[in-house]
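Tokens for chain A. Residues wanted.
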């Protein structure tokens, strides 16, 4: 037997386009993104803002799923705007100009679900929006491991934060978290552990639930802050 209010609601969510808000102080940049997104039947641009303060106001009145957020803007930068909206529903993708933008670390701490380069191609942009909407985190592949090393440099010189929740993970879950924190994709982890990608996703879901984390990016932050991964050696240690 199928159907019922819950399944009908799920069907409606699946059929509804992904609602996107564009935030950038350059009108031409917003126009370029809008041109790409408006051509997609499953994505709808529901608003634009030219600075962070306007974005926060807009998102109070507009129901959005994903926000494409620039960082360097007048009145309020994208980091503060992300901090103000990230806990209220929309997932935020920070747009960076440079491969190792100094704002990337702050963006992740502020609650962004990931970041990508402004010069990413249309296919990458669409993939990022859909991935974030489905609950995954997005980090431009070319920056992942270097971002993790940069992240480590921002950690204070103090003892790792102790969290008893870490002890609730199984041995395999701890192993998966460690590999995620080293910047490995689900496919790479599956190859390393000789399991399927579906199994890795299942482990990841349990890890997030047990630790009370929002997404993969928060899991990386958590692994560094608790000392599971040591500073400055994301790709080669342990």
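Reply:
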């Amino acid at each position: 037997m199928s159907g019922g209010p819950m399944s009908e609601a799920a069907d409606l969510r699946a059929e509804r386009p992904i609602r996107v808000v564009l935030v950038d102080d350059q009108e031409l940049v917003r126009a370029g993104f809008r041109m790409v997104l408006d051509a997609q039947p499953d994505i709808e641009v529901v608003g634009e803002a030219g600075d962070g303060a306007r974005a926060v106001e807009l998102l109070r009145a507009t129901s959005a799923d994903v926000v494409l957020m620039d960082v360097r803007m007048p009145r309020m930068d994208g980091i503060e705007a992300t901090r103000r909206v990230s806990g209220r529903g929309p997932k935020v993708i920070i747009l960076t100009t440079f491969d190792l933008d100094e704002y990337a670390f702050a963006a992740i701490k502020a609650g962004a679900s990931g970041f990508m380069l402004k010069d990413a191609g249309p296919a990458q942009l669409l993939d990022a929006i859909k991935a974030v909407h489905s609950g995954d985190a997005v980090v431009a592949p070319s920056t992942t491991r270097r971002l993790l090393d940069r992240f480590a440099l921002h950690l204070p010189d103090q003892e790792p934060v102790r969290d008893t929740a870490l002890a609730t993970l199984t041995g395999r879950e701890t192993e998966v978290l460690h590999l995620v924190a080293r910047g490995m994709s689900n496919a790479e982890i599956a190859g390393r552990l000789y399991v399927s990608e579906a199994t890795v996703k299942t482990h990841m879901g349990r890890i997030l639930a047990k630790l009370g984390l929002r997404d993969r990016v928060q899991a990386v932050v958590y692994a560094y802050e608790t000392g599971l991964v040591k500073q400055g050696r994301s790709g080669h240690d342990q």
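Confidence is low (pLDDT under 50) at residues 6-12, 232-238. The chain has eleven helices and six strands.
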